[in-house]
Amino acid sequence: MSAQFMPRGQSRRFVGSARGFTLIELMVAMLLGLIVIGGVMSVFLAGQQTYRSNEALSDVESSSRTAFEMMARDLRDAGFNGCDNTSGRVANVVNNNTTLWYANWALPLQGYDDASKDPALTGLTGAGAPVAGQSSVSVLGTAITDVSVGAVSGSPTSLNINAASTQLAAGDIVMVCDFDHATLLQITSYSGTSVGVATATTPTPGNCSSGLGYPTICNATGNAYSFLPNARVNLLTAVDWYIGRNAVGGNSLYRLPVTYTAAGASAATPQEMVRNVNSMQISYLQSTGTALTNAAGVTSWAAVNAAQVALQVQSTYARASENAGTGPLVRNFTYTATMRNRVQ
């Protein structure tokens, strides 16, 4: 049998059609693909970090705004009694009112450079315990009620009010005021429209006198005075703002209020208002000066008419800082509040 040979030109066409990508071409293609994927990943990661940073910034700004709004509300109302805030004519028959921070109307605003030395915070441990070296401030004011004095009772140990109210109860500390003066007292008993004011030590802390006149005389009858109809009856509010340790080991902004029960007045459980507030420093402005000073530099708390609060707040997300995302985002904020009842 004779051999069959493929024509020369046809052989070349067959060999040419069998060729593919060389190993070098495949490697170049893979390299280009990796470069594209790397670029996409870089853009994605950068966008993700930008999102986290923006979210963290929104977090700290929201926290600071919430803190300032709530804290400023109390600071602005320091010393508010519901009537004339400028006369200074305030009687106080609450027992031990000069040593009980929540009943000392002579100091409706008082700050401390070290919260651990604030008498309102003595004995607090665990979650809510004050952080040493951080500022704190106690603020006294009154909350407006719908209650006013009705007909004169004719008894030195009671007040008649305009109508029965759920806003008052035995144990409450209230401020009664008219055109002449204001008096801070604790309600001994309450029934219908009759508010009892007795010389007693219960409810705690009780009253040193049933005489409600100005100036205060602490004995059984005291300085007798009958408030006329339409005199205002407002509830005493007392709070303390400070930085404390929270339940997860960080720092938070806390508010310690005083609450009332039939047994009397007492400091409530500290309220965690804003988490991740690392520090707070408060400076004060006195009407007699032009420069801000810390609490130790205040010569007269009665002359303080503004407070500047500086907070350091960190984000909840722990990898949002500008330093390659190795820690939380931290920002410092400052706010100034004016004591409305001390400016003309």
Largest sheet data? 9 strands, mixed
Q: Give the terminus-to-terminus CA distance.
A: 128 Å
Percentage of residues in DSSP E strands = 25-35%
Task: Give the helix tally.
Answer: 2
Rg of Cα set: 35 Å
Instruction: Please tell me the total number of domains.
Output: 1
Provide mean pLDDT, rounded. 90
SSE-based structural type: alpha+beta
Helix content: 10-25%
Shape: elongated
Query: Helix-strand pattern, N to C?
Result: HHEEEEEEEEEEEEEEE
Residue runs with pLDDT of under 50 for 5 or more positions = none
Please provide the count of β strands: 15
In short:
Helix content is 19%, strand content 28%.
Characteristic terms for this protein:
single chain; 344 residues; alpha+beta; nine-stranded mixed beta sheet; three-stranded antiparallel beta sheet; 15 strands; 19% helix; 28% strand; elongated
Layout of strands and helices, then pairs:
Layout: H1 8-17, H2 23-76, E1 90-92, E2 109-112, E3 136-143, E4 158-160, E5 173-177, E6 182-186, E7 189-191, E8 194-196, E9 232-245, E10 251-261, E11 264-267, E12 271-275, E13 277-286, E14 304-314, E15 330-338
Parallel strand pairs: 1-6
Antiparallel strand pairs: 2-3, 3-9, 4-8, 5-6, 5-9, 7-8, 9-10, 10-11, 10-12, 13-14, 14-15
